Each structure stands twice: as structure tokens, then as C-alpha cells.
């Protein structure tokens, strides 16, 4: 039975599409063929094509393998490194929800 279709918002789709295009351009700047990158990443040529199209169905691990082949894997450390929203929320001192413990029958 096929899995549920992945719900993705248009803005998220655009981000993935742009990311895939940047990976494709990085591959072309290095003059790597799609077959070479796919082989080194351990994926099929079709999967690499999906990566370069920004498919949300491709796992993050595959994206990471392609980044590694292109020697861009360290760029992943930049993602979410500066969590401005999270820090603002933390600074507001919002109360943390506490779990209510169940009483033990004794």
C-alpha cells in the first residue's frame, strides 16, 4: 500500500526547489556528471534527479550524501544555528508546561 502523500506548503516547496537547483549548479560548477555524483552518493541517477528538483520525498540522508560528494556537508551546520525566534521566546520567560504525574495506587 502506498504511503500517504506528503503535505507540503507552497513556500516550503519553493525552498526545496531552490535548494535542489543550488545543488545542481554546484555539481555543474565542479564539472561532475550526474552519473558520477549519483554513484559517489550511493543513489540512483533518478534519485539524484529528484534531489536536484527539490523533491520532498527524498530523505534528508540522501541530501546529506549529495552535499558530501559536493564537499558542502559543513554547510549543514549553518542551518538553524542562529535560532533568533527560539531565543526571543526563551527570553520572554514563557512558563514551561509541567506533566502531571499520575497518582500511584498504593
List the helices and strands and how they pair.
Layout: H1 10-29, H2 34-41, H3 45-53, H4 60-69, H5 84-92
Helix pairs in contact: 1-3, 2-3, 2-4
- Helicity level, as a percent range? 40-55%
Instruction: Please work out how many helical segments DSSP would assign.
Output: 5
Ends apart, CA distance between termini: 47 Å
Rg (C-alpha, Å): 20 Å
Reported for the largest beta sheet, the result is: none
Provide the β-strand percentage band.
Answer: under 5%
Number of strands: 0
Gross morphology is elongated
Short structural summary:
The protein is mostly helical and 106 residues long. The protein has five helices and no strands. It is elongated, with a radius of gyration of 20 Å.
Polypeptide structure, described:
There is one protein chain. The protein is mainly α. Helix content is 53%, strand content 0%. It is built from 5 helices and no strands. The protein has helices at residues 10-29, 34-41, 45-53, 60-69, 84-92. The longest helix has 20 residues, at 10-29.
